[in-house]
Design brief:
120 residues, alpha/beta, 2,3-Dihydroxybiphenyl 1,2-Dioxygenase, domain 1, four-stranded mixed β-sheet, 8 strands, 33% strand, globular
């Protein structure tokens, strides 16, 4: 039986990725050790892992994660209040398929899309 998923995304600079996820998005470090070239962060019930890929060209990175939330409007406003850049094509909106969604890009162009069902 499957219980959880922890996406692994590429990062060029562990310090920059850590700063973005912890200080801008409100995640925290998880795990009991700080591994060289690897980062694990968590927030609520979400855990993301990052592996060092120093040669990554962000313009060619297609890493993507879709994260469901049950309070998308407050999350969106909180990110705006903390001056987190929202993807130019990804402001909060209700999509034709009924999901409320918005997107942002991390320092390595990993696309994070947040969504909430219209029925929630």
């Amino acid at each position: 039986m499957l219980t959880t998923i922890h996406p692994k995304l590429p990062m060029r600079d562990k310090a920059a990725t850590k700063d973005y996820y912890i200080n801008k998005l409100g995640f925290r470090n998880c795990g009991s050790a700080d591994y060289d070239g690897y980062l694990m962060v968590e927030k609520d019930n979400i855990e993301l892992h990052f592996f060092e890929f120093a040669a990554l060209d962000p313009t060619e990175n297609y890493g993507q994660v879709y994260i469901r939330t049950n309070d998308i409007e407050d999350l969106y406003q909180s990110l705006l209040d903390h001056e987190v850049a929202i993807h130019p094509n990804g402001p909060l909106q209700t999509k034709p398929w009924g999901q409320k969604e918005f997107s942002l890009l991390d320092p390595d162009n990993n696309l994070l899309t947040f969504g909430q069902s219209g029925a929630e």
